[in-house]
From TrEMBL:
InterPro entries: Bac_export_3. The chain crosses the membrane at residues 12-37, 49-69. Its main location: membrane. The keyword Iron does not apply. One of its GO terms (cellular component) is plasma membrane. This is Flagellar biosynthetic protein FliQ. It is a multi-pass membrane protein. Belongs to the FliQ/MopD/SpaQ family. It comes from the Bacteria. It comes from Roseicitreum antarcticum. GO terms for biological process: protein secretion. The keyword Transmembrane applies. Keywords: Cell membrane, Cell projection, Cilium, Flagellum, Membrane, Transmembrane, Transmembrane helix. It is found in: Cell membrane.
Length: 88
C-alpha cells in the first residue's frame, strides 16, 4: 500500500466518522441551546434540567439513526477496507 492510498482511506474514514456523528451532535446542539434559552428566560438554574433533556434527545436520535450508521460503516468496510486487506 502506498502513502497516497493510505491517506485516501484515512480521509474517507474521517469523512464517514463526520457523517455518522452529525445527527447526534446536531441534536445535542439544538437541545442544549433550547434548554439554555429556557433557563435564561425562566431563571431556573437546575443542573438536571440541562442534562436530562439532552440525554433523552441524544438517545432518541441514536436509536432512530442506528440503522443508517450501521449501513454507512458496513459499506465503508466492504468497499474500502476489506479489498485492501484481501488484496495486500
Amino acid at each position: 500500500m502506498t502513502e497516497g492510498a493510505f491517506f485516501d482511506v484515512l480521509r474517507h474514514g474521517m469523512w464517514v466518522a463526520v457523517i455518522i456523528s452529525t445527527p447526534i451532535l446536531s441534536v445535542a446542539l439544538v437541545a442544549g441551546v433550547a434548554v439554555g434559552l429556557f433557563q435564561a428566560l425562566t431563571s431556573i438554574q437546575e443542573m438536571s434540567l440541562t442534562f436530562v433533556p439532552k440525554l433523552l434527545a441524544i438517545v432518541a436520535v441514536f436509536w432512530i439513526t442506528t440503522s443508517f450508521m450501521t449501513e454507512t460503516l458496513v459499506r465503508f468496510f466492504q468497499d474500502e477496507l476489506i479489498p485492501l486487506i484481501v488484496g495486500g
